[in-house]
Structure formats: structure tokens, C-alpha cells
Amino acid sequence: MASFFGNTGQRCLSGANLVAMSSIYEKLKESFAEAASKIRLGYGLDESVEMGPVVSKRAKERILSYIDRGVEEGGKLSLDGRDPKVPDYPDGYFIGCTIFDDVTPDMTIVRDEIFGPVVSMIRVDSLQEAVEMINTSTNYGNAACLFTRSGKAAREFRRKVNAGNVGINVGIAAPMAFFPFGGRRESFFGVLHGQIDCVDFFMDKKIVIERW
Asked: Rounded CA gap, 122 and 154, in Å?
């Protein structure tokens, strides 16, 4: 939950697309939506609050426009956060957790970076299909994470997925300070990655963070 809704989805490594195997899709959809619906909105520095507002009015308008676009393109909202109630802060730039169900890879909400608390759920039948979708449905390649009990699946995913930061059984694939930040495609700008990459000129590395 924190990987998608932490920082109100406004960090570069936040989850955006939740890709699930068909065999667990319905069960995951129900439990995910139930947990998201219980996240408490409010003043971000209040320790009892789990999700604060987005950063500005402009950001709120942009995120809402993406949600509306998703609906126009046929996305089904299993959780609609467009009109949250935060009584103590009626003028705050709040957006509740929003989940689209049975989204297809050609939709704008999958291809673009929304940078807000919006999740697109996508159904696949195999790991190969998931990797292919990740590699071709968007021009971005900052991070991709896999939750699995299979070492074989983890090995195949980390080798084939075209993302610069790879997580295995972790929701945010954030490298430690002494590892380079490995953004790829349009999630990267320049010729060198941040942190200590300046000593490894023009190498195209992939960072993998695993938990077993």
C-alpha cells in the first residue's frame, strides 16, 4: 500500500500500475481496494493521518484530469477518490486513493506518469506477458517490482524487464546511497545517473533490490 499511496503517490519510485496474474486477480482487487478505502486523509504532519494532500492546486487538477481520461477510455473505477471528505480542511488539495479495474495497456493512465494516488490494475496470464507489457506499454522505465516466491521468476524478471531500478519482494526499489539511481528511457535525463555513477562512464546498469 505504501508503495502506491505513500507520499500521496508523488515520489519518483511510487507504484502506478498493479499487474496481477489472472489466478489471483479478483482476490487481490478486493483486498487491495478494501485496504485503500481505509487510508485516512488529512494534514500530513498529523501522526494519525496516513495520506496528505497533493502538492498544489495545479497538481490536483492534473491528476483529476487523468482520472476523468481513464473513465472516458473505458476504465472502471473500483475506488473513486475524486471527491474525498476531509472536514477539517475543506479547501485542501486532497485526492483519495483511486483504483482502476481491468485496465488495458493502451490506455493513457497506463502509459503516462500520473504522479498521484491513482492505481491501474492490469490482468495478465503469465510472467512473460507482464514483462512484455512493462517493456512496451510506456516510454518510462524508472522502476518495476515483482512479488514472488519463485527464484526462477525473480531471475527472469530482473534480467528481462527494461527498468533501471528493480525490486524483488519490495514495493519501492530505492537503492542505497552508495548505489547509482538507475532510471531508464524517459525516466532518465543526461548521460550519467545520480549518486556515484559519474565514475562509471556510459555504462547502462540495472539495480536490483531483493527481499527473501
From this structure: 19
State the pTM of this model. Answer: 0.84
Closest CA to 48 of 13, 10, 78, 86: 86
Q: Which residues are catalytic?
A: 12
Taking 90 as the threshold, does the pLDDT of residue 202 lie above it? no
For residue 122, count other CB atoms closer than 10 A to its CB.
22
End-to-end CA distance of the chain: 19
Strands 98-101 and 76-79, sheet pairing: antiparallel
**Spans of all domains in the chain:** 1-125, 127-212
Helix/strand/coil for 103: coil
Rounded distance, CA 64 to CA 89, Å?
19
Looking at the domain 1-125, which fold is it? Aldehyde Dehydrogenase; Chain A, domain 2 (3.40.309)
CA 77/CA 54 separation, integer angstroms: 20
- Residue given cell 524478471 in the structure block: 157
212 — pLDDT class (breaks 50, 70, 90): confident
DSSP 197: G
Three cell numbers written together for 160: 528481462
For 88-106, the pLDDT digits (tens) are 999 999 999 999 998 999 9
Residues facing 48 on adjacent strands: none
